[in-house]
Design goal:
This protein has about 160 residues and is α/β, with parallel strands linked by helices. The protein has a single domain, classed as HUPs (Rossmann fold, 3-Layer(aba) Sandwich). It is about 45% helix and about 15% strand. The protein starts with a strand and ends with a helix.
Length: about 160
Amino acid sequence: MNGLLIGRFQPFHLGHLAALEYALSTVDNLWIGLGSSNRPCEKNNPFSADERKQMILDSIDDSMKKRIQIYPIPDLENHIKWIDLIDTIVPKFDIVFTNDDLTKHLYSKRNIKVLSIPFTNRDVLSGTNIRDLIISDQKWDDLVPMGTKHFLNSNSAKQRLKNL
């Protein structure tokens, strides 16, 4: 059975890692959609799809890598067309993992099973919070996997975020 998990992963953090682990405990293979892949770098989307893919791959072990595929998912203004577009990008899936109410609604109307993802420390583990901590020189590196930490440090994320 295949599953789909879509997120922005700006940046990929421990909550995202827990979501991947949860999804992989339910399905054989997981398609990860990198949402907003067509958006230019900006304050809320500072990392490209390729950079986010690299963060994910650098943060998971080989057994997980064998069971996932990562796909860029562009934003569209029309939500119905957006989920139709997803069908043309990713292989067939049986389950969608999401906490987004609109995504839940759209896929449930298509008779696709939708599972909510248990949140892990949601008040702390959010991309917005982590980006804010980086910009303000506060401790953030314990909120991301080692692969993401290394990526952010080696790619001058702090300076990029301040510039945006």
